Amino acid sequence: MPIISLVAEDLDKSFSAGPPLFSGLNLRVERGLVAVTGRNGSGKTTLLKILAGLLRPSGGRVVVERAGSPLPPNERRLAVGWAGPDLSLYGELSAQENLEFFRRAAGRPIGREEIRRRLAAVGLAGEAIGRRVEELSTGMRQRLRLAFALLFDPPVLLLDEPAASLDAEGRGVVQEAVRRVRGEGAVVLASNDERDFERPEQVIELGRNR
Known about the structure:
Structural class: alpha/beta
Distance between the termini: 42 Å
Number of strands: 9
Oligomer: single chain
Number of domains: 1
CATH architecture: 3-Layer(aba) Sandwich
CATH topology: Rossmann fold
Helix content: 25-40%
Largest sheet: 5 strands, parallel
């Protein structure tokens, strides 16, 4: 299977006031874990959103490549999984209904048992999968965000503070997901907690020169 690469070239990001969050940032990753660190406000979340295609950089570019050729937009959307604290799911739907909806919307529906298997893999099972998302605890919603990021088995996984609000068991779920994906693909994980990083292949530290 051709290798998928996440490539960022000369990334800059500035807002209307203040110095740039970062500039001249370069990244190429095909496999392994990239740790994104830095104090609060240094641009970790902004960087991950740019890598995910949710924000535009002020300069530079991000491409997802297969064998050196950029993926078309419809393939790129499914090749990159993203989850962050501000990822909002449909509160009036259950965890199961949310995942079913997003698979159908992408034209790739799967059976109910497969959805339940994926929810169980992140620690959501039993009556929790049928409760409306707005009724779930903060930790349960965090687990559901992880399930959403993994929904299409992406070769590139972008996680922003994935273990926030999780107990020890939940942290273990995140760590296992990261180990599984980084073995065959790329994981970019932003956090201030060193426990979230297990021997990363690359480290990007933001905010050092500000």
